[in-house]
Specification:
Length: 261
Amino acid sequence: TMPKRKPFRLQRYDLTKRFSTVSGSTYFDTSDPNEHLILWARAANKDPVPLVAEDASTQDHTVHFISPQEARTSPFDKDSFSNITSPVGFAKGGGRVQVSDADDLSFGDGSSDSSFSLASWFLITSASATTELFFKGEETMFGDAREYSFVYHDGGLTGSLIDASAEAALLYSASIKNVASEGTWHHFAFTYNSSVSELSRGQFYFDGLSISTNPEVSGSYTAMEPSIGALEILQNLNNQAVEFFEAAVWTGKVLAAEEIN
């Protein structure tokens, strides 16, 4: 018989390497995460108010913090992992994480979509907050050039994948009223499997668990279309303070429930 594989455990929290958790969940059991991880946005240091952001993946996107402030807590104990960086707070106004436009941050070419996964650690200080967890694209006086949008609002999650020229969209919604709480770090994830039927493609996860996701097709959807808009993460839309620890994007990869957990 073949010897049993030992779990690979890290002393560093590192999304660029495969690992197993103490509870037994495995992140990228066999393949290299860097084949799919294209963005790992976080603070570049451990300063109380981290002014500099980084992409800690191998893709080196340009990441900025807009109006950063000191966060009150962190989802991880900095003494447990050597490379944990600082969380950041965004108070009233337009605070957010901004990632400059890049081709690999678009997942549709107007004819077909590709699979992808998104995840982020965030904290809300008010359950009635409205926060764009991820938003790519732009809305201008000349028309709608949005690509995808995921929003937390008043105990609910909504997601939109937009075919702008067709004025169509794939829409997703989920209630998290019973699990989302103020002043607590939460983990959000969304996976999109482009190879299955439209109503089966999208799935929300919250705090590591798959949650009931309601899909809807609006109009005649073909695919998202790339735009020149930046990727905005955790943008505060109604003056309720929020906090951010990190966000990650995987392309061509539908993260399994075990990998998210």
